Amino acid sequence: MPVPIEITILGSGSAIPTLKRGHPAVLMHRAGDYFLLDCGEGAQLGLEKAGVSPVRIDKIFITHWHADHFAGLLPLLETMHLNRRTAPLEIYGPDAKRFVNDIRDLSYWSIGFRLIARDCGRRQYEKLFSTSDYEMWAIKTKHNVPSCGYALLEKPHWAIDVKKLKKFGLEPGPDLRKVKSKGKVKVKNITIRLSQIAVQMPGRKFVYSGDTLVHRPLFKFAKGAELLIHDGTFIEPALTHAHPSSDQVARLAKQYGIKKLVLTHLSRRYRTESEILRVVRPIFKNTILARDGLKITLR
Ligand SMILES: [Zn+2]
């Protein structure tokens, strides 16, 4: 069974927050990893409501340096410091080194952990790091300042077929652990290969766009994703030349086989969810709107 990936929307609003919608921030939790995607004002309160200590956050991914996406960093870092964090914290983003340095200069504090800024998002697709289970990517997007989205891409994994196990007389224990880790094991002079007792399953894909016009390379990368969280600021065609219209997003999500689309960064001009949903649902029925505190679990 794959480990659950839990995604919690901490803030679903756009440039001006409302009582119901805070500035953008998304928490992603997979096995022992806790990542924050964007860190708008109020992100640490969102973490508190989600029951996650800020100290657990290992990495923060900023899509672009507009204040609604990063203004929560200063108070979050302060809280981490006061909670005696010692583990280093990585912050990714286009021009991250420049902006993280600026933030470091904004106070008399002396934080007791290492801040590691990592620039990304210059290339269309950029692999940020890879673990034994998954890869994390930055995808260049199209906003009015340097920007990128982020994607978690799981590697294919082997799922044990219990019937085949029985056929080979293998039982849970050291032999099974060995075949899982080494790819083969020798039992009573017979070599059993992993491919004989397991089937390869594709990994899951989760993509977060940040603020962007519709950008086909992002959808190409997100093709078939379990979940795409996309800028859904406006219903109307791009008012500011920096955000898409929701119908364009829904159309491409359908075309690229996205399993679930969540529109976020919602403008305060819309008073009800139905105003937006009646435009997008007829185009792509697996669309929902983000809400502060909304939790989605990928299994
Ligand atoms: Zn924004």
CATH architecture descriptor of the largest domain? 4-Layer Sandwich
- Uncertain segments are none
Average residue pLDDT: 94
Beta-strand segment tally: 18
Query: What is the CATH level 1 assignment of the largest domain?
Result: Alpha Beta
For the report, how would you describe the main beta sheet? 7 strands, mixed
Measure the end-to-end span.
Answer: 8 Å
Please tell me how large the radius of gyration is.
21 Å
Question: How do the helices and strands line up, and which of them pair or pack?
Answer:
Layout: E1 5-11, E2 25-30, E3 33-39, H1 43-50, E4 59-61, H2 67-70, H3 73-82, E5 89-93, H4 96-104, E6 115-119, E7 125-130, E8 134-140, E9 148-154, E10 157-160, H5 162-167, H6 174-182, E11 184-187, E12 190-193, H7 194-197, E13 198-201, E14 205-208, H8 216-222, E15 227-231, H9 246-255, E16 261-264, H10 273-280, E17 287-289, E18 295-298
Parallel strand pairs: 3-4, 4-5, 5-6, 14-15, 15-16, 16-17
Antiparallel strand pairs: 1-2, 1-18, 2-3, 7-8, 8-9, 9-14, 10-13, 11-12
Polypeptide structure, described:
By secondary structure, the chain is an alpha/beta fold. 25% of the residues lie in helices and 30% in strands. The chain has ten helices and 18 strands. The radius of gyration is 21 Å and the shape is globular. The protein starts with a strand and ends with a strand. The mean pLDDT is 94. Zinc ion binds next to helix 2.
List keywords for this structure.
299 residues, alpha/beta, Metallo-beta-lactamase, Chain A, seven-stranded mixed beta sheet, 18 strands, 25% helix
